[in-house]
Amino acid sequence: MYKEYQKEAQKIISKMTLKEKIGQLNQITITPYMNDIKNLHSMIRNGEVGSIILASSATAGNDPQGHVNVDLYNELQKIAVEESRMGIPMIYGRDVIHGHRTVYPLPLASASAFNDSLIEKCYRNIAEEATADGIRWTFSPMLDICHDPRWGRIVEGPGEDPYVGAQMAKACVKGFQGDDLTDKTSLVACAKHYLGYGFSEGGKDYFRTEISDATLQNYVLPAFRAAVDCGVGTVMSSFNDINGIPVSGSKKYLNDILRGQLGFEGFVVSDWGAVEQQEAMGFAEDRKDCAKNSIKAGLDLDMCDKCYIENLEALVNEGQVSEETINLAVERMLCVKLAMGLFQRPYGEKHDYDKEMHLADARELAAESMVLLKNDGVLPLKKDANIALFGPFVSERRSLLGTWSLDGSEKDTPTICEAMSAAKSGGKLIVHNTNGLFDNSEYLSTDADVIVLALGESHWTTGEHHSVSDISLYASQIDLINRMRSTGKKVVGVFFCGRPMALEGVVENLDAVLYAWHSGSETANAACDILFGDVVPSGKTPVTFPRKATHIPLYYNITASSHPVNGYYGDHPQDNYTDSIATPLYPFGFGLSYTKFEYSNLVVDKQEITLEDLKQGAKFDVSISVTNIGDYDGKETVQLYIRDKVASLMRPMRELKGYKKELIKQNQTTNVNFQLSYNDLGFYNENGEYLVEKGEFEIYVGENCLTENKLSIKVV
Ligand code: BGC
User: Fold this and answer.
1) 529 is catalytic
2) Residue 178: pLDDT above 90?
3) Is the distance from CB of 555 to CB of 147 less than 8 angstroms?
4) Measured in angstroms, how far is the CA atom of residue 60 from the centroid of ligand 1?
């Protein structure tokens, strides 16, 4: 896809000076030059800038941002195109992560929707909006699988499951890039952070990782494989090391695995400063050494730390780096620029888009992302009920947008209080923002039929550089819940969070729990859609919710242990811990509805299949009937897991291999079918070779990863 432009790129490269080539590998941020614009102009004119990042700092995710300015970008582009000797356009990139002007749910929240086509549609909308502001490249999707919710960046990714990661990768890349990369609304995607960043020890940001090659292949790489398979244009190399080797200086990860094994054809950009950081990490002597490591490893574009522009020329002249290595990196840069038609259309083109439709899609995805964790019958609420709405999130706007909402408008984001008063058709709405010094919530609740508490965590505890050591709910919020419980009224907790929080001892004192996440511009409206029953909840957890923070790491796709312990799958005589029960509070894939689904009739169309037939493309069908036996039409995400009982590499006790989200009307039965093939049954060995081994495979189909609907098939 990108390699078809190789010849054209090489033709351009043959006319370039070494300096101009190195300029293509240099990405700068314009913020420091805003008072020195002449200097910026001359750098561009001299061919020293291949790309501009539209971010104001190295940790821009929670920064208050200035808005984008397409006229300025076009003015600078004009200099690159018309006044530089080679006339090569620059590529502008921005962190358009889960929305642009319209903000969609955080990626972790979107993953809860288990609705790939809706996610793809929303990411297409995002691309339409970003390109209208002159942005043609985004640093998204983030595909870091993570087992530790203390990590602030878990919110930016798909959660704990490689299959969900791969589905998200496809939906986001297809949505961003569209069908035709040259279209003015196409946004080149960037799969990040390659590689293993989500495995940072203790959830500490920028920290070390220890990842075995087998874990890398089976947990960490699948989402990147999927992104590459659907043509992602760029990949971002991460800050972390794996087993003592910084990824941004590693030929093994950047070249051998990414290009050799995965077949990636686009260019690799470093994360911000990830080249120079090798010095701090004790992997390079100085900045020059950093540049040498990275360019040799296969890192093409240096984000913001100037290591390349300052050192590559000398490294080539001294014979430490060959010009051929530089040419290769430039070729990859140019192939992407050519593939996106940047030479023909270098300028940002303002265009209209259907803002209302984008908001409607954001509301739909937000509602599908929210997970109903508990409901003792209090939900849905009556629109004319007397409702007391209390808690620290009653008037919150910014956190609802979530981290990395650079261009979302806080003031246009309704609060839960505004959304609720718009949704109600009568009765009182008694509002108290329980955030101050004086709290008379008990007294205020006297007239209420039901109490709704708006709870959660600020966006300041999520995102880059914002890890936390404890995912327990704040003591003040627990106190509020307990006090409201003592009123004897029904109490509903709505949690606006970026990560799973440890809620043992909390949910017991609530009659209903809606996990609303930081779901973007329409968070509050979508939450009200669910609270009042206009939308029947259908989100499912893409990460495990531990009972206690101290149970981390806790994730569903674990291998069996030598002694049957009570870790994830049921009650065993031995407990992991002597002081608590270490099963999850809510397992992976869990989520309630207002209606009820009954599963029956799980069947497979054969008991045995030969490995040879599988290799030749044979498939087998698994199906199950799902009946809506409740009082509402509703959507159910039917999930299929496998377990390879015996293998040469221990396999997880459950591995998600498919899901289907179906709307099932009241009293209706739907047959849900899955087809499994060679690609679903195997695993990668540590050398990256894919294997399917003979033996028994258990297949589970049901409502979450603990489903007991099971059959088996033999591969012979
Ligand atoms: C973050 C990336 C981001 C980049 C550019 C880095 O600090 O780790 O996720 O894309 O900055 O803003």
Assistant:
1) no
2) yes
3) yes
4) 7
Distance, CA 38 to ligand 1 centroid (Å)? 27
Pocket test for ligand 1, best of 144, 195, 272 (most atoms within 8 A of CB): 272
Q: Is the per-residue pLDDT at 573 higher than 80? A: no
pLDDT of residue 607: 96
CB 48 within 8 A of CB 352: no
Write out the H or E segment, with its range, that includes residue 573: none
Whether residue 392 is preceded by a cis peptide bond, meaning omega within 30 degrees of 0, is no
Probe ligand 1: pick from 139, 193, 247, max atoms within 8 Å of CB? 139
In tens, the pLDDT along 644-695 reads 999 999 999 999 999 999 999 999 999 999 999 999 999 999 889 999 999 9
Q: Which atom of ligand 1 is nearest to the CA of 193?
A: 9
Distance CA 394, CA 413 (A): 13
Report CA(58)–ligand 1 centroid distance (Å).
Answer: 7
The residue assigned the tokens 């939450």 is: 527
Cα angle 214-219-225, degrees, rounded to a multiple of 5: 100
- The Cα angle at residue 326 between residues 321 and 331, in degrees rounded to 5: 160
Put simply, whether the predicted model's pTM sits higher than 0.90 gets the answer yes
Q: Write the burial class of residue 275 (CB in 10 Å: 0-12 exposed, 13-18 middle, 19+ buried).
A: buried
Q: How far apart (Å, rounded) are the C-alpha atoms in residues 78 and 89?
A: 8
- Region 560-575: mean pLDDT is 75
Domains of the chain as residue ranges with CATH: 3-17+95-339 (3.20.20.300), 371-538 (3.40.50.1700), 595-715 (2.60.40.10)
- pLDDT of 315 over the 90 cut: yes
Centroid of ligand 1 to alpha carbon of 565 (angstroms):
40
Pocket of ligand 1, beta carbon within 6 A: 53, 55, 58-60, 95, 139, 192, 271-272, 464
Average pLDDT over residues 356-363: 98
